[in-house]
Amino acid sequence: MASSMNTDTSHSFSDDRVYPVAIAGGGVVGLTLALALARCGIETIVLEAFGRAAHSPLGGRHFMVSFGCWRVWRSLGLEKDLADLAEPVLGLSAVCADGTLGVRAEDGQDGSPLGYMIAEESLTKVLMRAAKKDTMVTFAPTGAVLAVEAGPFEVLLRMDTHAVRARLAVGCDGLRSVIRQSSGIRFEGWDYPLKAISAVVQTVGGHGGVARQIFTRRGPLAFLPLREGRANIVWTQPSAAADALMALSEEDFVEEAASRLGGVVKGARVETGRQAFRLGSHVADCFHGDRVVLAGDSAHQIHPLAGQGLNLGLKDVAALVDVVCDAQKLGLDIGSSAVLSQYTRWRRSDVVAVAAVMEGFSQIFSGPPLLRALAGSTMDLMGSSPAVRSWLMKEAGADTGDLPTLMRA
Ligand SMILES: Cc1cc2nc3c(=O)[nH]c(=O)nc-3n(C[C@H](O)[C@H](O)[C@H](O)COP(=O)(O)OP(=O)(O)OC[C@H]3O[C@@H](n4cnc5c(N)ncnc54)[C@H](O)[C@@H]3O)c2cc1C
């Protein structure tokens, strides 16, 4: 049998082994899962189409990670490396352009940040470095998974020049997941006639660590703090308007953003090229199939207005690790439907609820002024109660409900 040496690690890929877990997709969700399973003694093999995920076409994103989800990396001992690359978010301001609705929050629980902003590229580098050093994580030769075939005791992941066998395959291969499609799991939902444009700017006067979001009827415009006075602008617009914004010069784009966001963007300089992302709302009808399970964007895509996609993916990882590690300790088959259905039950209802809330917000923000005014009064009322306010903050920070072990740190 052929065996191919991985140049970055001392351990090599062997195609005559049955690995305990094969992870398709070495993005943020896939790498975090590999590191987390390694901590409970479960060996994984990662199969990544682009080798270094930060080089994938989606690599230019920036994420706001809530304080609850950030604990996943703290639990894995990565917080020190990540803290140097992340900007703490100290405040949040979300308002409607016509002044009908406004939400403001200062810091999170016990004066800690509400969350952290971090670039996908920096995050992936830290995760990749840790995974390459971990003897429980093997990398298959770079290439895309083309199909998955489940048998009674193992699953086969076919790639171009080789195949990988495992007891369980995890699809962390993003929106167009081959693992999901190959397993016949339906991805139900719709595409929005919208695009989000993302750009990084260097501000003149700094941002004070405050994430700002302005809702217009055509879509939200976010200004998210990054390190060293930089900021990530994420501007959602109907597709034709977004294309027109993409066609503007960088100076005119900043002027347009400044005319809505005001002083914080005035005089800013675009640092990286703009990227446009198509948007949709989809949830897999089941998060597992025969010897396969889905985590991250392969299982769900939600409206990005509150930046929850990766946060949900990190919750998936934490829950899946609890389910798989407990099963392993009890000597159960980690690829069995009895084990994996616990994960679907735990995660799918949470994802459906978050997707519904995001859709509700999107309808309110793009709805008539009366609806926004009503929502505004309700939120004012709720915000005036310290107990309700504290619960809302915990909810937004992913710190409520049945928390998996990695999120309790
Ligand atoms: C503009 C924008 C802003 C966002 N901001 C936020 C935010 O602030 N906070 C937040 O929580 N979320 C945010 N999101 C959502 C977030 O980007 C995603 O939810 C998250 O990145 C999903 O991570 P993932 O690892 O599941 O998937 P991906 O990042 O898509 O990674 C999938 C990986 O699988 C690999 N792959 C794909 N197909 C194959 C294959 N066949 N074989 C092998 N490998 C394969 C890819 O190369 C990639 O490395 C935002 C999204 C957008 C579009």
Architecture overview:
- The chain has 409 residues and is an alpha+beta fold.
- The chain has a single domain (3-189, 279-407), classed as FAD/NAD(P)-binding domain, CATH 3.50.50.
- 35% of the residues lie in helices and 28% in strands.
- The chain is built from 11 helices and 22 strands.
- The strands form 4 sheets. Strands 7, 8, 14, 15, 16, 17, 18, 19 and 22 form a 9-stranded mixed beta sheet that branches.
- α1 (28-39) runs parallel beside α8.
- Flavin-adenine dinucleotide (FAD) is lined by residues 24-30, 47-50, 53, 56, 58, 61, 63-64, 144-145, 172-174, 178, 196, 198, 234, 277, 296-297, 304, 307-311, 313.
Please describe the topology of this protein.
Blueprint: E1 3-4, E2 13-14, E3 18-24, H1 28-39, E4 44-47, E5 62-66, H2 67-75, H3 79-83, E6 87-89, E7 91-96, E8 102-105, E9 115-119, H4 120-133, E10 137-139, E11 147-150, E12 155-158, E13 163-171, H5 178-182, E14 187-202, E15 210-216, E16 219-225, E17 230-238, H6 239-247, H7 250-261, E18 269-270, E19 275-284, E20 288-289, E21 292-294, E22 300-301, H8 309-329, H9 337-366, H10 369-383, H11 386-396
Parallel strand pairs: 3-4, 3-13, 4-10, 7-15, 13-21
Antiparallel strand pairs: 1-2, 5-9, 6-9, 7-8, 11-12, 12-13, 14-17, 14-18, 14-19, 15-16, 16-17, 19-22, 20-21
Helix pairs in contact: 1-4, 1-8, 8-9
Flavin-adenine dinucleotide is lined by residues 24-30, 47-50, 53, 56, 58, 61, 63-64, 144-145, 172-174, 178, 196, 198, 234, 277, 296-297, 304, 307-311, 313.
